[in-house]
Design brief:
This protein has 6 helices and no strands. With 161 residues, it is an all-alpha fold. The protein starts with a helix and ends in a 7-residue tail after the last helix.
């Protein structure tokens, strides 16, 4: 990520496209290079929790099938937004909370979804403030063990203009 990459992300974030774009990130510390405004339309997927190489020398025998997720209705998103506003409104912009509420409503009942919310909260709060604020904010949702490695990598690094 550099200024060219950031300009590309800003351009993509402003477009009304109906596609999902996936960008790999080599290290958590690189996430601090992304401007806070861009995080409003981005989602950090903690893929290290999704893919695990087999520990045995023989091939993987079974893979769990995940059903497609049905988009939430507006009442579900509003309900999640109300909950998040109660917990986080003093520290996260409302626009950010709206995106997080949509994510939370969409992933309700999926295993690991709560962890994804903490990842989003951590990177967005670090982008707007710093890793200490991010840890405190994630702590309002429960244990920060799942995002501890991310917070350590982001500590001392946040986007500065």
């Amino acid at each position: 990520m550099d200024t060219v990459g950031e300009a590309l992300l800003f351009s993509l974030a402003r477009q009304d496209i109906k596609k999902t774009l996936i960008f790999p990130v080599g290290a958590y510390a690189n996430l601090s290079l992304i401007a806070p405004e861009v995080w409003e339309s981005m989602l950090l997927v903690p893929s290290e929790h999704l893919v695990v190489l087999p520990a045995e020398p023989h091939p993987l025998q079974h893979c769990t099938e995940v059903s497609p997720v049905k988009p939430p209705n507006s009442a579900q998103v509003i309900s999640e937004l109300d909950n998040l506003v109660d917990m986080l409104a003093d520290a996260v912009p409302l626009k950010s909370l709206a995106h997080l509420a949509s994510l939370r409503a969409t992933t309700k009942g999926l295993g690991g979804a709560h962890d994804w919310l903490q990842y989003q909260l951590a990177v967005r709060t670090n982008a707007a403030q710093d890793a200490q604020h991010a840890q405190a904010l994630c702590g309002r949702l429960g244990s920060v063990d799942t995002v501890q490695a991310l917070l350590v990598s982001l500590d001392g690094h946040h986007h500065v203009r």
